[in-house]
């Protein structure tokens, strides 16, 4: 079943409770946040991406209180920015990362996270510049390569993106965040079977995290295998969350099919003057 960029962005937000883009920067990771993918951050021992909307909002508030006391703490600021992104406040997320980038202008991890935040706000050229400035040819970083590839995917440069993903895999073989992002590249193109191959490989790695498995659930669901998608999602989410996600995915796909049918009907109508 074909998909498109819009469907993919909607689906990713659904399954991960809001991340965007899959800027998984080893992310992502991001990311995303994918923009990757180890957990973006944790609070009370629970990964942000598995929280309900109310839990995420509460966690974001607590992170914000801690951030206000120590805004130059890299880990804290990055986690706060990621939580804001997932909670739907992309503008504040970018403001937090911009401030951190000013405080750490040569820090590769900070610049990578800043690039992801820029990409999540649609500022792709600036995002590429930030990630590329963080990279050093003599000591290439696979996380930065994966982040750059994810940004390139967002602007439709899939061939260059996939070259970067494969270079990143040369540096870090079988890294689940890279494999997952490469799979998302094929989702954006509508090649769900190839996407699932990479997603399954990513999910089978011993260091695969929640977002990797949630992306697998997404690509399975996009192919209409809803029971299987719910089973995968329920390994990471509560049964209620997994059921709600799959129900929303069903609705989203039904709406897309309805729009496609209307477009086909319009095409079949005779032109009128």
Automatic annotation (TrEMBL):
Keywords for this protein: Signal, TPR repeat
Family matches, as Gene3D superfamilies: Tetratricopeptide repeat domain (1.25.40.10)
Keyword Signal: yes
TPR repeat windows: 142-175
UniProt signal peptide: 1-27
InterPro entries named in the record: TPR-like_helical_dom_sf (IPR011990), TPR_rpt (IPR019734), UCP035836 (IPR014596)
Protein name, per record: Tetratricopeptide repeat protein
């Amino acid at each position: 079943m074909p998909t498109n960029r819009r469907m993919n962005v909607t689906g990713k937000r659904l399954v991960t409770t809001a991340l965007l883009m899959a800027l998984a920067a080893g992310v992502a990771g991001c990311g995303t946040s994918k923009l990757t993918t180890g957990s973006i951050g944790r609070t009370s021992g629970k990964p942000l991406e598995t929280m309900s909307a109310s839990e995420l909002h509460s966690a974001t508030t607590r992170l914000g209180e801690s951030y206000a006391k120590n805004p130059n703490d890299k880990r804290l600021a990055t986690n706060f920015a990621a939580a804001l992104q997932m909670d739907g406040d992309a503008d504040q997320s970018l403001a937090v990362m911009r401030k951190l980038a000013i405080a750490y202008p040569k820090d590769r991890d900070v610049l990578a996270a800043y690039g992801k935040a820029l990409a999540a706000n649609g500022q792709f050229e600036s995002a590429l510049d930030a990630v590329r400035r963080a990279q050093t040819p003599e000591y290439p970083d696979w996380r930065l390569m994966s982040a750059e590839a994810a940004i390139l995917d967002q602007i439709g440069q899939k061939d260059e993106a996939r070259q970067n993903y494969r270079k990143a895999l040369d540096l870090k073989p079988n890294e689940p965040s890279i494999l997952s992002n490469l799979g998302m590249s094929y989702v954006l193109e509508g090649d769900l079977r190839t996407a699932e191959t990479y997603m399954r490989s990513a999910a089978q790695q011993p260091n695969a995290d929640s977002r990797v498995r949630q992306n697998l659930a997404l690509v399975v669901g996009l192919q209409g295998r809803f029971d299987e998608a719910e089973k995968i999602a329920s390994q990471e989410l509560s049964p209620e969350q997994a059921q709600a996600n799959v129900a929303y995915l069903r609705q989203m796909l039904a709406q897309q099919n309805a729009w496609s049918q209307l477009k086909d009907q319009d095409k079949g109508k005779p032109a009128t003057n």
